Amino acid sequence: MLESKISRRGFIKASATTAALASAGTVGFQSWTSEYVKAGGQTKITEIPSTCNGCSSKCGIIGHVKNGRLWKLSGHPDHPYAKGKICARGHGYATLVYSKERLTQPLKRVGSEKFEPISWEQAYKEIGEKLNAIIKKHGPEAISLTEDPRASGKIYSPRFLHALGSPNYYTHHVVCSNSRDAGFFHTLGVTSTSADISSSKYIMFIGRSYGDAIRPSSVQSLVEAKENGAKIVMVDPRLNNTCNLATEWLAIRPGMDLAMVLAMSHVLIRENLHDAEFIKNYSIGFEEYSKELKKYTPQWAEKLTGISADTIERIAIDMGKAKPKALIEQSWRGAFGCNYENSTETGRAVALFNAMLGNIQQKGGSIITTKPELGKLDPVKHPSPKEPEFKKAGQDEFPLAYEEQGVATIVAKLAMEGKMKAAIYNHSNAALGYGNPKYMKEALSKMDLVVTIDVQMSETALLSDYVLPDVTYIERDEAVEGLSGKTPGLALRQQMVEKVHPKTKPIDIIYTELAKACGIGQYFNFTLDGLNEQMLAPTGVSYKELREKGVIMFEDKAIVPGTMPELKTPSKKVEFYSETFKKAGFSPVVRWVEPKVSPSGESFRLITGKQAIHSHTQTANVPILMQISKDYDLERIWMNPARAKKLGIKDGDMVEVKSSEATSKVRVKVTERIHPEAIFVPSHYGITSSYLKTAKGIGFGFMEHVPFDFEAWSGAGNIHEVIVTVRKVRS
Amino acid sequence: MDQQDEKKLHTANLFSMLAELYKDPDMEFWNDFCNNKLLDQIKEELSLYGETAQWEVTDIPTEFSSLKKMYADSLGSQGVAIPVESLYKQWTADPSCTLPFAKSKGYLLGDPAMHVKFILNEFEMEIPEEYKSTPDHLAVLLELLSYFILHAPDEFTFHFMDDHFDWLEEFLLRLAETNSSPFYYQMTKMLERLLEAVRKEYIIMA
Amino acid sequence: MARYGMMIDTRKCVGCYACRVSCQMQNELPVEESFIHFYEKETGVFPNVKNEIIPVQCQHCEDAPCVSVCPTKATYTTEDGIVLVDEDKCIGCKYCMVACTYGARTQSHKTGVVEKCRFCAELVKEGKQPACVSTCISNARIFGDLDDPNSDVSKAIVKYNAKPLRPDLGKSKIYYVR
Amino acid sequence: MIWGTIIAAYLFLAGLSAGAYLTSSYVARKYPEAKAVRITGRIISPVLMAIGLLLLILDAEAGLKHPLRFIYLFTNFNSVMTIGTYFISFFMLAAAYTALMEILKKETNKYVEYAGMLFAVATAIYTGFLIGVVAAVPIWNTAILPILFVVSAMSTGIAGTMLVASFYDSKAVHRMLGVKKIHLGLLSAEVFLIFTMFLVTSYSNESAAESVATLVSGEYSTIFWIGLILVGLVLPIAVESFELYNDKKMKETEAGIMMAAAGQGGIAGTLVTESSVLVGGFILRFLLLAAAVPVPFL
User: Fold this and answer.
1) How far apart are CA D105 and CA D39, in angstroms?
2) What is the pTM (predicted TM-score) of this model?
3) Element at A459 (helix H, strand E)
C-alpha cells in the first residue's frame, strides 16, 4: 500500500459533503462557458458610479459589474468633467485591475532592484521601528511624505505625517503647477481660477492644450466657444493638437511668454482698454505696475518672442475690446506651471492681465471657484494630531510656494545633504518624474528609509526599501471628494469589484494599520465610512444617496457672475503690487525675467508636453494605449525641417539627444509644427522599470535631461531649462 | 482493491506531489524536497507510466535559497512564467464585455478562473486566501485533479484535464525564456507528458 | 429603409484616439488591430502651418469596390447601406484590401478574415450610435440617416458643406468637414 | 504590400502555365517531331498551375482554416476573381486531361485541347485583369496591363517549356526557329509595353507617376533595371538575336548547315536565356505588386 513519506500540505479544504457532490460531477468548461455566456444576458449587471484614475481629472465614471468582474466603463453623465464621456486613457487604464504586472504583496528590498515578499505585519513592524528610530535620532523633521493626491490621500497622508510630528507633506505640483500656483495665489488669493470658456469671446492659451491633456468637458466647452464664434489664440512653440480649434497660432520662442503678456498689458494700458473701474474697486498697486509696464513695448517683446509687435498689439486691443468676455486661460503645467525661471512671474502677469480685463467672476471670464462645505472628524472622538512644531522643509527657501503643496524635490536635496532620512511616496513616481532620475536615485539611496505605496513596480518603488501594494481605483472606496467649480459638487470613488489580489490594501487601511505600528494609532480610530459620514454631515446629502448617485451637484450654490468675492490675499484685493514678494526678496511688481539658459545656433531647448492617450508615465504600461504610440511613432522628438536639414536629419531618422545630464537615442519627427529653436519630446516615455514590460524601452525619459533645479520663486522644477544638441546616428 | 483503483491512487498521489512543486516553496517543503526525497518519490511513482513519463532533471537545487530563487525567477509574481491558466487564455468569451482586454491574453481572473471558482462552489471546497485571485493556479489545478481522480466520475475528471491543462504548451514556451535554471521547465515538460499519458488512459477507460 | 452615413468634422478633431479605443473594445479587436486610422496632413511652412487630423475608416461606399471584387460575396451591403463582412464566407484573399481606396480594411491575425468598420451595426439596430460617435470627446462625429433630411447628420452636412474624401471616386457615406 | 511575394508567384505561375500549354499546342502542330517539347509543355502546365493554386490557397488564411469556404469562390460574377476561378478551373481540367493523355500515350481529344487553349488565354488575361480592375491603384488600372501580362505569360511559357525540354532533347529545342522568333517578338513587345505603360499612366496620374518613380529611380530601381530590364529582357533578347543571326549565317555556309542540322549549339545559351526570362517574369509581377501606390484620399 502506498504510504507517502512526504508530509501532505494539500491546501484544498473539502466540506463534509464534498466527496458526495464530487461523485456526481459537474459541468465542464465548454458547456459551462456557453451556459455562462448565454446566462450572461440575464445576469444582473450592477452599475456603480465612481471616479476615473486615468489622470488627475478624476472624471465621473460608471462601472458595470457582471458576475463580480468589471464588465464595462461608461462616462458619468452628471459629472462636470466627464459629461458622459470617457477618454482613451479612461478606458485603457482599467486594464490595470486584472493586469499581471501589479504589485500583489508587500515587498522588502534585499539588493539592488531585488525584493523579497514579506507579510504586512513584518512590513508595518519594520517601517514603524525605523520611523521611530529616525525620529529619535534626527527628529520628525527628517521624515517626509510625497503624493500625487487623491481624495483619501489628501486626508490620510498629512494626518499620518502630522501624527508623527512632521510637517513635510508634499504633492507632485513641483513639476506641475507650482509656479502658476504661486503667481496666482499671491495675486488673486487662489492657486487657480477656472476659465468660463464656453461663454467667452476671446480666449488665449499659453502652452496649454485641451486636446493633448484631455478633460472631456474642457474640449467640449472650447468647441462650443468656437461654434459661438469666439477668437481662440494658441500661444505655443509647437502647433499642438488643440490648434485645430484655434483661430490663430502664435509660434512663440520657448520661455518668452512673460514678455508677450507684459507687452499685451502695456498695450492694454496704452490704449486705455483696461477695466479701470474694476481695478479701482478690487485691486491694489496698479500704479506701480503700470509704471513698470511702460518699458515693455510690443517692439521690445517682438525681439524676444519672435511674434510681431503688430500681432501683439492687435490681439491685446481685441481682447481689451472683448472684455470682460476675454481671458488668458490659467492652464496647469502649460508653459508656466513649472517650466522656466520666469514662470512664477508669468503666472502673476497672466492673473494680472485677466484682472486688467476685469474678467474676474464675469461670464466668459476667469472664475474664482467655490467648493462645497465639508465636515471634519469629530474633534472629541477623533482628536487631530497637533500641528508639527517645525516649518515644512523648503518653506524658508521658497516662501512663495503654495504651502499645502510645498516643494517636493527639496526632499531629495536634503537627503543629499544628509538631513532628510525618510521618505514615503504614495501614488507618486517621483524618482522618474519629479527631478533628474540620476539625482533622485542617489538621493533616495542616501536615506535610511524609503517606502513606496503603489499599484505597479514604478521606478520609485524599485528604489524603495519597502514597497506596499495598493489596490487599484476600481477596487477601493475613497474619501468624499469636494468638486470645486462654478457649481460646487460632490463626487465619490467607490469600490466596483472585490480586490483581485488578497494581499493588497487601500491606503486608508494601510495608514490606519501603519499608524498603530508606529504608536500613533489613536489618531486613526475611525473608519473610512465613518469619516465620509462626518464629511457629508454639513452638506445635507446622505452617504447612501451619494453612494447611489456618485456625483451630486449643488446647482443652487452656483456662482452668480458679477459678484466679486473677498480675496484671500493680504490686502483682500487683487495685488498688482505684492508685499509678500517684496518680503521674500523679489520684485513686488512683475518684471521681465530671463530664462536661465538659452540655446545657441547649434543647440536646442528641450520642451515637453502631453499626449491625449497618456497620463504622465502611469499609462505607459497599458497595452491598448502603448500600441497607439507604437502605431504612430508617438515617442519621437519633433524637429523643425530647417534645422533638420542643416543637421542632415530626415523624418524617421535615429538621433542622439545630448544634454549636460544624459544622452538618449530616439527617432525624429521632422515637422513644420515646431519652433526651430526647440525640440519637443512627449513626457510619457522612457520607462526603465523592467517590471513594466509593455512600456520599457520605448522613447526616452524627458526628466533624464533636466538638471536638478529649483525655480527661485516657487521652487518648481524648471523643466524646460534644458539645452540639448542633436546628431544623427545609426539606428 | 482492483488494479485500476490502485493505479488511480498512485496517480492521484503523483499529481498532489507535483502540485507541491508549483507552490511558493517554504521551509517545510524544503525539508521534504532536499536530498531528493520528493523527486525520488515522484520518480518511483512515474515508473507506473513507463517511458511516456521519462524525465530528466539536470539542475536540482541543493540549497533552499537557490530553490527559492529559481522559483522567483521562473514562477514567482515577477518570474518569466506565472503558472496561472487565465494568463494564457483569452480573458472572456462573453461578447458583451467591452473592456479593452476582453479578448486578450495575459489578464487574471479570466473565464477559466471563473470556471474553477464555479467548481469549487459546486463541490463546497475552499482554497487558501492567497489563491483567491488565481483559483486557476497550476498548484490548485493539480490538487483538484488529484482529488477528482479519486472522487469524481472518470468522465468529469477527463473533461477537467482537457479543459484546464491545455495551456501548458504556451506556459512551457515562456518558461523556456528563463535565464535562470531549467529546473521548472524540465519538471513541467514531464508534467505535460504525464498528463498526456493519464489522459490516454482515461480515453481507454471511457 | 435608412441609408446610414456619418459626418466627421476634422476641425473639431484633436486626435485623442478615444474613437479608436472604443471601437476596438466594441468590436473585440486585439490591441494591434484597429478599424480607424489617423492621418495627419500638415500644410504650410513655419510659422504659418496648419495641421489637419483626419480619422479614416470604412466609408461604406454605395458602389463599394470591396463588394464587387469579393469573390465569395463575404462582403455585402445591407438594406441600410452598411457594408459588412460575413466572416463565415471570407477566405482572406485580401482582394478587397487591395481594391479599397481608403486602406480601411485589416486582416485579423487570429482568423485571417478581413474586417473593417461596421458602423456598429448591432448598436445601430438597437437605435444606439456607433461606438466612435458616442465616445467622441469633442462631438466631431455625427451619425444618422442620410435619406432623412431632418436627421442631425443630414442637417449638419448641409450646414457645414461636408464632402466625402474623394467624391470623384465613388459614392462614399462618410462626409468630412475640412 | 497587401499582396506580396506569394501572390506575385501565383500570378507568375498561372501565366507560365497558360503559356506552356499554348507553347505545347503550337509545337505539336508546327514541329510534330519535337515530342519532348510538346510533352514537357503539357506536363508542366497543370503542375505549375496547381502549385500556383496552392500558393493562392496558402495566402488566403481564412480559407486555409476553413477550406469549405473556397466553394463560395464561384458565387460573385461581378468579381474578376470569381471569373478567373472559373477560367482556371476549366483550364486546369483541360490541362490535366491533356497531361494524362500524354502520360498514357493516348490521343488527345482535340476539342478538349481547343477548350484548353481558349481557357489558357483566358487565364493569362485574367491575371492581368485581376489587378487591372483595381481603380484604387492607377499603375494597375490601365488597359495595357492585361496585354502585358498575356505577352509575359506567353514568353515565360515558352521559356519554361524550352528550359525543361532542353534537358531531354536539346536538339529539338534548337531546331525550332519559329518559336525563337515568336519569343524574340514577345520579349521586345514586353519592353515596349512596360515603357508605354509607364509613360501613359505617369502622365495621366500622380499616383501612377509615383509608382513609376519607385521603380525606375526609387526603392525598387535596382531590381527593376538589373532584374527585370537587364536580366529579364535585354539579356534574352540579345542572346536570342545573336542565335538567330548565327543561325542565318550558318545556313549560308555548308558546315553551318550541317552543324545546325545536328543541333550542336549546346544548351548553355538556352539555359541562360530561358532562366533569365523566367526570373524576369516573376520580377515583373512582384514589382507591379510592390510599386502599387493607391490614389491619395486626404
Assistant:
1) 10
2) 0.91
3) helix A459-462
Q: At what angle do helices B3-21 and B138-151 cross, to 10 degrees?
A: 170
**Do A500 and A101 form a contact (C-beta atoms < 8 A)?**
no
Partner residues linked to C6 by β-bridges = C143, C174
> Which residue of C15, C31, C49 is in closest CB contact with A241?
C15
**Do the Cβ atoms of D205 and D138 come closer than 8 Å?**
yes
Question: Is 3.40.190.10 the CATH number for A116-171+372-381+403-556?
Answer: no
**Residues on A contacting C at a C-beta cutoff of 8 Å:** 85-88, 91-92, 210-212, 214, 216, 219-220, 222-223, 226, 239, 241-245, 249-251, 612-613, 623-625, 627-628, 631-632, 640-642, 671-676
Nearest CB among A216, A245, A632 relative to C38 is that of: A632
Of A87, A244, A640, the CB nearest to C11: A244
Specify the CATH number of the domain D5-290. Answer: 1.20.1630.10
Instruction: Report the C-alpha gap between A417 and A415 in whole angstroms.
Output: 5
Q: Under CATH, which architecture does the A178-369+562-583 domain have? A: 3-Layer(aba) Sandwich (3.40)
pLDDT one digit per residue (tens) for chain B, 206 residues: 577 788 888 899 889 989 989 998 888 888 888 877 788 888 888 887 877 666 777 888 888 988 888 888 888 877 788 999 999 999 998 888 888 888 888 999 999 999 999 888 888 888 988 888 899 999 999 999 999 998 888 888 998 999 999 999 999 999 888 777 888 998 899 899 889 888 888 887 76
The answer to whether C164 contacts chain D (CB < 8 Å) is no
Selected residue of B88, B94, B171 to mutate for chain A interface (largest A Cβ count, 10 A): B94
Q: Scan residues 101-160 of B and list those with Cβ closer than 8 Å to A.
A: 101, 104, 106-112, 114-115, 118-119, 122-133, 140, 143-144, 146-148, 151-153, 155-156, 159-160
Tell me the per-residue pLDDT of A679-727, one tens digit each, with 9 for 90 and over. 999 999 999 988 888 999 999 999 999 999 999 999 999 999 999 999 9
- On whether the A32-98 domain is CATH 3.40.50.620, my answer is no
For residue C73, which amino acid is it? K
Contact (CB<8Å) A88/C138: no
Please indicate if any CB of chain A lies within 8 Å of the CB of C28: no
CB A96 within 8 A of CB B107: no
Backbone angles phi, psi at A512, to 5 degrees: -60, -45
Residue A489 parent element (H or E): strand A489-491
Measured between beta carbons, the chain A residues lying within 8 angstroms of C47 are: 249-251, 675
Domain ranges of chain A: 32-98, 116-171+372-381+403-556, 178-369+562-583, 604-728
- Complex prediction ipTM: 0.89
Mutate to test the interface with A, among C138, C141, C142 (most CBs of A within 10 A): C138
Going by C-alpha positions, the residue among A657, A627, A633, A634 that lies closest to residue A722 is: A657
Chain C's closest residue to B96, CA to CA, is C26
Q: How deeply is C150 buried, as exposed, middle or buried, from its count of CB atoms within 10 A (0-12, 13-18, 19+)?
A: exposed
Residues from chain B that touch C22, judged by Cβ atoms under 8 A, are 98
Q: C28, B95: Cβ pair inside 8 Å?
A: yes
Q: Which three cell numbers stand for residue D211?
A: 509608382
Go through the domains of chain C in sequence order and give each one's CATH number.
4-177 (3.30.70.20)
The architecture CATH gives domain A604-728: Beta Barrel (2.40)
HSE on the CB side for D104, CA within 13 Å? 9
Distance of alpha carbon A420 from alpha carbon A413, whole angstroms: 8
Q: Do A40 and B37 touch (CB under 8 A)?
A: no
